[in-house]
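Long-time lurker, finally posting.

We've been working with Zn(2)-C6 fungal-type domain-containing protein (Patellaria atrata CBS 101060) and I want a structural starting point before designing mutants. I don't trust myself to interpret raw outputs, so I'm hoping someone here can both generate the structure tokens and explain anything notable. Sequence follows.
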Amino acid sequence: MFHTFQSSVALRSPDQTGSDGGAKPARASGSRRISTSNACVECRRRKIRCDGTQPCGQCQWYQHPEACSYSKPAQRVVPSRKLVDKLQGNIEQRDTVLQRLFPGKGLETLVSLPREELLNLALSAPAATSPSSTTGAQPVQTTSPNSEGTETSLEALEQAPDQNPEWDEVRRYQDKIQNISDDVNGLSMSVDRLASYVGISSITTALKVIVKAAPVAKPYIYHEQFETAQPSRANSPPPQVDDDPLALPSLEEGRELLNAYYERVHQFFPMVDMDRVWNTFTSGDRTDSPWLALLNIIFALGSLASGTSNDDNHLIYFQRSRQHLSLESFGSGNMEVIQALGIMSGYYMHYLNRPNEAHGLMGGTLRMATALGLHREYNDSATSKANVWMGWNGNSMPQESGELDHAEVRRRTWWSLFCLDAWASTTTGRPSLGRWSPAVTVQGPGKVPIPNRGSNSCISPTTPQDQSQLRILPLIHNTEFCKICTQVQDRLATTPLPKLDEVQELDSTLVRWYEDLPTILSTNQPCPEFLRIPRSVMKWRYQNLRIVLHRPFLLSAALRRTPFSTLSSEEKMAVGKCRIVAGKTIEDISNECTEDLISGWNAVWFMFQATMVPIVGLFCDSSNPDDVEKWQGQIDTAIKFLDRMIKWSVAAKKSRDFIIKLSEAHKNAAEREANQ
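Top reply, 14 upvotes:
Generated this for you. Predicted structure of Zn(2)-C6 fungal-type domain-containing protein:
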């Protein structure tokens, strides 16, 4: 009876009222109140007291004993001081790494970027110097191919030219000038015998690495070498040349040629005073050789810029210009002779694919310039003929009125020669021979002392408005770029594999130079038509120099057949930069190059340089299928672009055919390997 009474009381509803005014479920006599820190899920939901049993009394009363369940209580973890310090240290280390990879970038700006953009941003940012880099592990080059024997050393790829080489350039001038085979641009396809010396930074070295690491490519290169040895367009007759060295085009034709030169070429090296050239040409009162040599080479480039790769009319003016130049010209000390030789050897002859002849002539031209003292700044030169400069306001370059000031012509001539020589020789692997040194004190182009501010107080058009100021803007910034070029050239000519910290420092300097360019030169915003091609070429040349700077590490890894995954972290950074910049270059050139001969000529050369990077990857590091697919896509983009540029570059077809052959060689080798 006692137990039955207790059971009925225990099942009474907690809401049931009695004589005691709201009695709750009774407990057994003598038992203490149950206290639990963990109520069941249903009691928590109803927010009522739970007795902690299974099933609890409340669930039984509500007739849902199956719903009675308990969640495992979360155990509170009190971190130790040691753990807190460790976590804080990890956060600081991650922040340090992020700042090294993305200096000046906040985490909130990076979190939404895709992987490819993060890689591109990290590899294009200036490298931060780590305090431990000088005291930590040995740099990667101590275990590089240079210390692993001659078979895997970049130095072993260097070779002396033949003792008595017959440069094809000489025969080309007598027979058919526009051949496209030479050692410097790599299109001779010669990897065993060279007619001239080219170093590690040349494109020929990349071809040697491909042949050494992947002998399957050798027959394809030799096949192309045989075809390239034949004169291009051998059946086309040479242009007819007027035997009269004093012959000139009509006034109307001359105007068109001068205008084409002024709009499409002059901005690259604005050393010539075009107002004076036009006035002298129209007056017709000068027939001396220095003047006619300069005028005809300007006509040649004007004809070149206004035509296509199939036009040979420019050769008429080139040959006329040469008739007014001889060995005696180097002793003339004439500014017009220096300008004519500079334009001819520094620019035009590279279109004719005669780089060795151009290299020799440019050396003599620079010696002439130093003999005239163009490399020095003089205290009285800035004030000579100052009356021809008018209207400066302290914020921009003086505006030209009539002919240029003599001192400014000297400055522009020196720095134009400086840039032309740097552009032509950076990828040859040859030393600069002192092109840039402390002895060169001449001020930069477009800088004129301001009255009452001292001789060293100069202004430069950082935000120019007038067209005359805009036309010299590329030379102003190319001058600084070519100083960096000279450092890179001499460093790579000294040793095939420079130290990584030197490479990072030079690369950081390059990136800062490009980021500091005026907006009109560094972006795709609207600009005058005469600046469109120069600024595109500036960008491609900047990208190409970054490729050349990091390419020795790519070639070193390829020569050792070392997969990317097994490289050291330093080598991965250098090789990764080379590959990413090359891929971006291929994409940019394909999208930005216009159908114009000056643009196409430059673009084809830089495209060929950049495409060698994914080709080396295909032959020497094809372990990652994703990388292989990406590289093949870049090569396909390059082939389509080169096919599109055949009309605008004499080297486009040969470059395209060569890349196609190498791509086929890789595909055939991959198929044979898969079938084994």
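Before you design anything, note these points.
The domain at 39-69 is CATH 4.10.240.10 (CD2-Gal4).
The chain has a mean pLDDT of 78.
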